[in-house]
Design brief:
Blueprint (H helix, E strand, L loop, with lengths): L1 H20 L1 H22 L6 H18 L6 H18 L6 H26 L3 H4 L2 H20 L3 E3 L3 E5 H21 L9 H28 L15 H25 L1
Antiparallel strand pairs: 1-2
Helix pairs in contact: 1-2, 2-3, 2-5, 3-4, 3-5, 4-5, 5-10, 7-8, 7-9, 7-10, 8-9, 9-10
């Protein structure tokens, strides 16, 4: 328990610093988190020290630099260029690597680097400092409400083969709790958020909370596919970076898109 508390404090501190700082500090922290996450995933496939991995690490840095310098429109081109380089290495080093190795690298790049990079995109938006905290509301806030609701009322298993402890009741409680927190948060900071109604704040939090479960279950399913408990032991009592940021990885694009859609229709 002591290790879990210390590990949780460390993760929370780094997360808060990343969200509050903005600029180069946030960029560097997210770049480091993404590279470690990629290393954890590729380690499952014994690719973390391959030429593929080192190229992916470099491209991860490139992605965050592009966003930092407001060139995020080039992300698709960068992803395609990475694939082209990987395919060239695959061909000229044949049969050292297999086609599925290329697929694993591209998957980890999109799943971890590209999806996590939406956190930086959110932070760089107008009102980005306050919008970024919806990531915590929809992940951590949702988890807290889901945990207590599930412990109290949980009877129907949500996905027993992937995560036997999650219940339908916990899911509903988590989403409802996230809506309430997001709604109250929007009321508390009306001039710091782009919503014309606090209800939109609740909607963003609730929808993101709903999808955060997919992020959590996806990371768990991958671990079950490979019979591992944690992605790494980097964070005492919590596992690795992917273990702790699985929900954030999935909901970052959701929140970014939702805010843009709401800003357009208001």
């Amino acid at each position: 328990m002591k290790e879990r508390i210390i590990g949780g404090f460390f993760v929370g501190l780094i997360t808060i610093i990343a969200l509050l700082s903005g600029g180069i500090v946030t960029t560097c922290i997210l770049t480091a988190i993404s590279i470690i996450g990629i290393w954890e995933y590729l380690r499952i496939h014994s690719l973390e020290k391959s030429i593929f991995a080192y190229i992916e690490y470099i491209f991860t840095v490139i992605v965050y630099l592009l966003i930092y310098f407001d060139c995020d429109k080039l992300l698709l081109s960068v992803t395609i260029f990475l694939l082209m380089i990987l395919l060239a290495i695959y061909v000229f080093s044949f049969p050292k690597y297999k086609d599925e190795d290329v697929a694993k690298v591209i998957f980890s790049f999109i799943y971890i680097t590209v999806m996590m990079s939406f956190v930086l995109m959110i932070r760089k938006m107008e009102f980005g400092l306050y919008l970024a905290f919806y990531l915590l509301i929809a992940s951590w806030g949702n988890d807290i409400f889901a945990y207590f609701t599930g412990r109290t009322l949980g009877k129907h298993k949500m996905s027993p083969k992937v995560s036997p402890n999650k219940s339908v009741e916990g899911f509903i409680g988590g989403v409802a709790g996230a809506f309430v927190i997001g709604f109250v948060y929007a009321i508390a900071f009306p001039k710091m958020l782009p919503f014309t109604s606090a209800v939109w704040g609740g909607v963003v939090a609730a929808v993101a909370a709903m999808t955060s479960v997919i992020g959590d279950l996806c990371a768990s399913a991958i671990k079950r596919n490979h019979n591992i408990k944690d992605y790494s032991h980097l964070i005492p009592g919590h596992g690795g970076i992917v273990d702790r940021f699985d929900s954030v990885i999935y909901i970052a694009p959701i929140i970014y898109w939702l805010v843009n859609i709401i800003s357009y229709i208001q």
